Amino acid sequence: MLGVFTSCEQSGPPLSAVIVTPASNATVSGTTAVQVSVPDKATVTSVRVYARGTGEKGLGTLLGSANRAPYVVSWATGSTPNGDGLEVYAVASGPGSSDGMSDPVPVRVSNPDAPALNYLVAYNLPASVQAGSLGIKATRPPRLNPALVHADSTSSAVQTQVKSSAVLSPQFVTSLTDPLPSEARDLTVEWAWSPYAGANGYDILLSKTSLAGPFTTVQSQVAVPTGTQKFPLPLADAKPGDRVYGVVAALTNNATDRSSFSNAGAASFLQNQQSASPADKQVVSDGRPVLSWLPLSGADAYLFFLCNKTCSDQDATDLWSSYNGKSFISQTTLSAFYPASWQPLASGTYSWWVAGVKYNNQSQAVAFSYSSLRTLVVP
């Protein structure tokens, strides 16, 4: 039998509770009964059942309650995310006694009618990019497919474009002591999911508390005929460090029926990425720039882009980057040298920026923080 953990929130003898069903690591679907055993039934007046992400400390989402024996709660699993990473637990309450919490029981929700969420990504962007020609509602910066950004991504064709620097340039070291500029930032979360057969539309749902929810519908949108479905949402009240969770549900039968929730995505917003050198509008006389940037807490790797015009513009071309549109180097150093085998940049003004990247435990990119856009000048 599972052990019992008790918490003391009131005076009096502590109560206790044990999850009887579902069993540990059970797969559940549809409407599932959660049965709770309470040794001292005379004292208990209520049993509440919750679901949360595995290892989370918060309450999670309330699945239901029972106020008399047998203590059984009907759990509509379609309103919690599909897949792994969830646990259920019970809390017993009664007058004059402290609440008792059961040990959590790990479970896996598996509903066959659930759509598949491809990714949930948290973007930290300069506000000027959001307000400018990039148009976050139309695309993501900078024409990047997060589904292709993995911790183990390598490409020999791209690899030749980057050299690691064992010694930081004096210009970079100096910039570490410079005061960092204050700038407005926009924090945006984006969902992407595969088409669902027969869907007329989709509900996009967000939680700020737990992988299990509760989830709030933030948008309902019409299904497009083909291709990956996407939805970006700027969060005016978010700040770096905040964690968000997202799911989607398919709407069928002229949007009168809603499917079970998809698997959940989870992401935390990174702090603001900062560039180091070249400084904005700096002249690079030999046409062979060395880009450098500050380390970003929480970032696992970095993406850099040098463009023929403002990198956030939709018609900009990436002339030099650690990302080639299909894969990228998991760049962990803080500088990149223009390839010696390439022709120097022609005379003109170029745009560049860098993004810190965070991976989840499946090596998928879940957060990007972009620096401010800078220019460099080749005379």
Summarize the model shown.
This protein has 3 helices and 27 strands.
What is the string of SSEs from the N terminus onward?
A: EEEEEEEEEEEHHHEEEEEEEEEEEEEEEE
Strand-pairing-aware structural class: mainly beta
Spatial gap, N to C terminus: 76 Å
CATH homologous superfamily designation of the largest domain: Immunoglobulins
Q: Under the CATH scheme, which architecture of the largest domain would be assigned?
A: Sandwich
Please characterize this protein's 3D structure.
The protein is mainly beta and 379 residues long. It contains three helices and 27 strands. The termini are far apart.
Topology of helices and strands:
Blueprint lengths: L3 E3 L11 E4 L4 E3 L2 E7 L8 E8 L7 E6 L4 E6 L6 E11 L6 E3 L2 E5 L7 E10 H5 L24 H4 L10 H8 L7 E9 L7 E7 L8 E7 L6 E6 L8 E10 L4 E2 L6 E4 L6 E3 L4 E2 L6 E4 L7 E7 L10 E4 L13 E3 L10 E12 L5 E6 L3 E5 L1
Parallel strand pairs: 3-10, 11-26, 20-27
Antiparallel strand pairs: 1-9, 2-4, 4-7, 5-6, 5-8, 8-9, 8-10, 11-12, 12-15, 13-14, 13-16, 16-17, 16-18, 19-21, 21-24, 22-23, 22-25, 25-26, 25-27
Defining key terms:
mainly beta; Immunoglobulin-like
